[in-house]
């Protein structure tokens, strides 16, 4: 079915990019002095938790093939490349006591080459590969980790600030906290849904704020860069226009995005989260809320620690009021705290459940971020893309998805006045998709994981994206305003 796409040009200052993350592409897991990190440990200790017992030991072998990756980016014509630093490649034991010069050299070469090719690096300091020593100390359940992260951030600003003007502290704390420490679906696989999610959220936002303040106080004046955190959320659409369903959708957004965005942009946790977790904790007979209380000093310290909003999003779901759940006791659990019913429309095109072709949901989400969070003057989409579960070189579904999401983005910009200034496709390469191993393919470039050379083959979406970047327009002919 033909869908009408926006015929507006992308604004002159709009930036296009592609994204990857260290553990998902680099490989060389123990090479040249790199230390062990959480996902090395997890995939080696619990191979059965990963599809086909795969791991990222070699992944796309980008540790050796990074020049080829930059060639692909150059040819594509992107304005920026979002990549992440492997903390334990730079600091094998996690702390600044021991710096691995090979790791520093690796990233220096990449950043230099990107700059030489006029590609702006968007650098994420932490994309889930926690040095294993910190996992042994409790990982993100231990607030002390925030200090170690801050040390790593300072060192990275010192080492790479020449090249990097856009820093992202942490990727998707929601995924880390809900899946890593709540449901156990990702490393470290902990199931502490009632408490762990909130403790992890606390440590993540504290770590982010520390890194932000370090940049602000020690580097901003000389380096002139900016700092943000990547937050992810699907869009929660009310299941009906009934007030109860609208409230259910707002509650879902508060628990998914608000838990992290509210303290950073508006100050403190969302009120609905404070109330629901607090009341349920009392009903459960607990002496205090399972949600850590932020002190007035912490609220002030964490608030306003972002220079622009980084958004990752892949899909939409409906939220519906669920009768009786709010009163139920005896189930200290993040999802019971939210207490709503969610569902998808079976008509929505989707190959995996959380990536769905719902461009209007994306537009609503952009509008939500724009109006809900104080002081947001700019939004950059730092991840969005389509998942296949088999190798498809003529990936028309991906082209459909990305073109319709970009069209929705243009509508949000031109029709709704949302200042969204960048879009980053996930991903440049098919890569190691965490517990899904190599079974989910989100790259615009195919990587042959059966080939020792990890041969890269651009898919149709790569050529299509290249044309969009060159024309700055989604259709045959665009109009100027
Ligand atoms: C509070 C909400 C209540 C109920 C929720 C109902 C269910 C709706 C579906 C929500 C989404 C499920 C979880 C999805 C999270 C994604 O945003 C996240 N995993 C994306 O992470 C990035 O994914 C990339 C592609 O897989 C890539 O792996 C990258 O590294 C990640 O940053």
Automatic annotation (TrEMBL):
Keywords: Glycosidase, Hydrolase, Signal
Gene3D superfamilies: Glycosidases
Gene Ontology biological process terms from the UniProt entry: carbohydrate catabolic process
PROSITE patterns listed in its UniProt record: GLYCOSYL_HYDROL_F1_2 (PS00653)
The reaction(s) this protein catalyses: beta-D-galactosyl-(1<->1')-N-octadecanoylsphing-4-enine + H2O = N-octadecanoylsphing-4-enine + D-galactose; a beta-D-xylosyl-(1<->1')-N-acylsphing-4-enine + cholesterol = cholesteryl 3-beta-D-xyloside + an N-acylsphing-4-enine; Hydrolysis of terminal, non-reducing beta-D-glucosyl residues with release of beta-D-glucose; a beta-D-galactosyl-(1<->1')-N-acylsphing-4-enine + H2O = an N-acylsphing-4-enine + D-galactose
One function term, GO molecular function aspect: galactosylceramidase activity
Cross-referenced InterPro entries: GH, GH_1_N_CS, Glyco_hydro_1
Keyword Cell membrane: no
EC number: 3.2.1.21, 3.2.1.46
Similarity section: Belongs to the glycosyl hydrolase 1 family. Klotho subfamily.
Official protein name in the record: Cytosolic beta-glucosidase
Lineage: Eukaryota, Metazoa, Ecdysozoa, Arthropoda, Hexapoda
């Amino acid at each position: 079915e033909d869908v009408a796409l926006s015929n507006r040009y992308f604004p002159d200052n709009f930036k296009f990019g592609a994204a990857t993350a260290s553990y998902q592409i680099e490989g060389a897991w123990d090479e040249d002095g790199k230390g062990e990190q959480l996902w090395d440990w997890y995939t080696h200790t619990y191979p059965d938790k990963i599809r086909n017992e795969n791991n990222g030991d070699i992944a796309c072998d980008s540790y050796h093939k990074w020049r080829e990756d930059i060639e692909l980016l150059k040819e594509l014509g992107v304005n920026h490349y979002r990549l992440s630093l492997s903390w334990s490649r730079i600091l094998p034991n996690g702390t600044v006591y021991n710096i691995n010069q090979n790791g520093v050299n690796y990233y220096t070469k990449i950043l230099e080459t990107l700059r030489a090719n006029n590609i702006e690096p968007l650098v994420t300091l932490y994309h889930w590969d926690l040095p294993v020593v910190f996992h042994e100390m409790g990982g993100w359940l231990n607030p002390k980790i925030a200090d170690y992260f801050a040390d790593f951030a300072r060192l990275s600003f010192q080492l790479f600030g020449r090249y990097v003007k856009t820093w992202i502290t942490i990727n998707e704390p929601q995924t880390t906290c809900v899946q890593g420490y709540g449901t156990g679906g990702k490393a470290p696989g902990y199931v502490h849904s009632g408490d762990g999610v909130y403790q992890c959220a606390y440590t993540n936002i504290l770590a982010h704020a520390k890194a932000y303040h370090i940049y602000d106080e020690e580097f901003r004046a000389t380096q002139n860069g900016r700092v943000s955190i990547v937050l992810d959320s699907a869009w929660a659409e009310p299941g009906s226009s009934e007030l109860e369903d609208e409230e259910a959708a707002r509650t879902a957004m508060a628990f998914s995005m608000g838990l992290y965005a509210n303290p950073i942009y508006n100050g403190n946790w969302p009120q609905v989260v404070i109330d629901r977790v607090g009341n349920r904790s009392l009903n459960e007979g607990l002496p205090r809320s399972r949600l850590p209380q932020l002190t007035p000093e912490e609220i002030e310290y964490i608030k306003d620690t972002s220079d622009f909003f980084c958004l990752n999003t892949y899909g939409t779901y409906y939220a519906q009021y669920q009768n009786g759940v709010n009163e139920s006791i005896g189930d200290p659990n993040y999802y019971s705290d939210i207490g709503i019913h969610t569902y998808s429309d079976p008509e929505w095109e989707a190959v995996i459940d959380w990536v769905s072709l719902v461009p209007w949901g994306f537009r609503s989400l952009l509008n939500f971020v724009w109006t809900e969070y104080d002081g947001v003057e700019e939004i950059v989409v730092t991840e969005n893309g389509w998942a296949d579960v088999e190798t498809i070189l003529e990936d028309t579904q991906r082209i459909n998805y990305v073109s319709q999401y970009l069209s929705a983005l243009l509508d949000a910009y031109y029709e709704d006045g949302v200042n969204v200034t960048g879009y980053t496709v996930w991903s440049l390469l098919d890569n190691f998709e965490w517990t899904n191993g190599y079974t989910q393919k989100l790259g615009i470039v195919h990587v042959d994981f059966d080939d020792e050379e990890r041969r890269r083959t651009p898919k149709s979406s790569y050529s299509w994206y290249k044309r969009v970047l060159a024309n700055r327009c989604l259709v045959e002919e665009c109009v100027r305003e």
